[in-house]
Amino acid sequence: MSQPTVNLTETVHSAIDAHRHERGPLLVILQEVQERLGYVPPAAVPLIARELNLSRADVHGVLTFYHDLRTEPPGRTTLSLCRAEACQAVGAEALVAQVEEALGVKTGQTAADGSVTVNQVFCLGNCALGPSALVGGRLHGRLDRDRVVALVRAEAS
Known about the structure:
Blueprint: H1 8-19, H2 26-37, H3 44-52, H4 56-65, E1 77-82, H5 85-88, H6 92-103, E2 109-110, E3 116-121, E4 133-135, E5 138-140, H7 145-156
Parallel strand pairs: 1-3
Antiparallel strand pairs: 1-4, 2-3, 4-5
Helix pairs in contact: 1-2, 1-3, 3-4, 6-7
């Protein structure tokens, strides 16, 4: 995947300037960079570290600790499958395996063609209608393999 067309240095400095005055601003800066670029490019780590007087390891540690932060661009469609207990009780584990096979993408990865990123989440608050998932940011319940694949394809078109 290629680097974003937006100026990385400008984006990082803008996020830092907006939050430098806050106590412990690293996480919110990383979130803002991701919001603007879609992910936090590895090249942003030394810029942020230098400006906040942190080590690269400190920045990298926070970036890789939080599952919602990405160091690579997401797919054009993002699928987040719920794996919490209520969804597990109605077949979420089997659904995850079926969807991974149908889409050819493992949880936590992006398809080679950049079409879809498959994530896992642990509760979407849709427990009565499990198994549930977010497809392109929209919540869906009572899912099966065919419905998930259809939703992903519809989102991609």
